Amino acid sequence: MSLRLGDIAPDFTQDSTDGPINFHEWAGDNWIILFSHPKDFTPVCTTELGEVSRLKPEFEKRNAKAIGLSVDPVDDHRAWAGDIQETQGHGLNFPLLADGDRKVSDLYDMIHPNANDSLTVRSVFIIDPNKKIRLTITYPASTGRNFPEILRVIDSLQLTDDYKVATPVNWTDGGDCIIVPAVTNEQAKEMFPGGWDEKKPYLRMVKQPNKP
Ligand code: BEZ
Asked: 20 to 30 A from 182, CA-CA: which of 71, 144, 150, 190?
């Protein structure tokens, strides 16, 4: 059965470029981006891993860490890291799991046999500090992911957790937010003293709470 939003992310121990990793222990109280790529030494994957390395400071600002995975061996991951540095200008700065026995791929349903029966698809899981799965996305092998979108989702989730606001279509950082329906107007007066724009009783727009 596939994993769903709100499920606890399954724990595992697997080898990686940083040595054996126990996932829950490694995750600690961080937000985690767990993502699979199909294969080392392939072009789209090379660009993705360079991008995730480039974005490390952005993950850190959000108390988030990335961890990648493919079924290739650790030695291949390490050898490929040189190409990533050379071609993308950013060396691998996060662990890559070596899931040759498919332990993690099977747990997280990352191999979709009707797409490819031996390689992982481009899965993404955002996992919160309580180890709950908060987002899943699956991309085909031929489409490189948009990692700024992953950061945008983390920002949105953190706003919801911290301030009880949701984010509207195409929201980006600094844009107006929506007071979640579970918050009554009485509660909202306390929580949003600057007020809000009530377009409908269920559509209450408010300035992004963590911005001046
Ligand atoms: C790539 O990363 O370029 C790739 C990997 C597997 C299949 C297709 C493309």
From this structure: 150
